Amino acid sequence: MVWKILLRSHGNDRGSQSVDMIGTWPLTGGKVRDGLSYFLIGLVLHACSNGTDATSTPAASPPEREQTSLAAPLPARAAPRYADGQVILDRVPGELGYWGPASVTSMIEKGIKVAMNGQGLLDNLDDADKVAPFQPWALALYRYRQGNGLKDDPAQACISPAGPRHLHTPGGFRIIQDQNYNRVYILFGGGNRNWRVIYLDGRSAPDPEEVVGTYYGHSTGHWEGDTLVVESSGFNARFWFSNGGLPHTEALRLTERFSRPDYHTLKYEVTIDDPFTYTRPWTSEWTVEWVEGGDIQEKFCER
User: Fold this and answer.
1) Strand partners, 244
2) Which of 39, 151, 162, 271 measures 20 to 30 Å from 284, CA to CA?
3) Tens digits of residue pLDDT in 96-146
C-alpha cells in the first residue's frame, strides 16, 4: 500500500523545503542517514512541488480496468474483384499482403472436436479414432505416429509438406490468378518456397494409374460462382498430407474449395477420398487470415 506522509518539525511545515537540502533534512533532530528516509522525503518533495495536499491516509487505488482483447477486430471489408467481377484471391495491385495463420492446426473431420497442439499432436491418444473414418491399418499407423511424438515426420527431412498441409505451413502463401493462361499458382513461404499449379483450361484430372505420382499431385479447377473448385489426384505417398501424421496412399483424391467471403478471410474446404485408407470420403474445413502490409516469408529447409 502507498502512503502520503507530511513531515513537520516543531509545528513548522517543511513541505516547501528545497530538494537541494534533502541531504541535510532534519528528522528527529539529526541528519538523514538511511536510504528509506531519503525515499520518504523525496515523495514529500514531489508531492509539494506539484501542489498536492499530503495526508496520513492511504492513496486511492486506481480503478480496475476492464480487460479487452489485444487485437481490435478488423473492420468489415468486401473481397476485391477484377473488372469482370471475378473475386481476387490475392492482393490487389499497389498493396502488400498474404495469407497467414489458419484457424486450425491440422485436418479433422468436419463437426468433430478434439484437442491437439500446433503440430497436430493429440492431447489424448484415445481420441485418434474420432479424427477421421480410418481403415483399421490406417488408424493403427496414425496412432503409432502420434504415440512416438511425430518424430517420423518427413518434413523434418525437408520432404515437402504437400496436400492440404501446405496451408498450415509457417511462412504463409499467396494465390496468384493468371487470367491470360487460365492458371492459378499457389506460392508458399515455407517448405523451401515451393509452388503448385492449378489448370483452369478445361482439362480433366488425370487417372492416377496413368501418371507418375508427385507431392502436389495434378490439379485442375473451375469456378462455381465465387468459389474456386479444384480436383487433384496423382499423388505419391512419401509425404504427410496433414499435420499430425494422417496417412494416405497413391489412390488419394482431393476436392478443394477456395472462397473469399470478405477481404480478410479465405475459406478452405477439402474432401478426402482414399478408399484404401478411409472407409468413406470425408470433409475438413477451416479459414485463413489475410496479413496486410507484408509478403510471404523466405524460409528454406536445411538438414
Assistant:
1) none
2) 151
3) 999 999 999 899 999 999 999 999 999 999 999 999 999 999 999 999 999
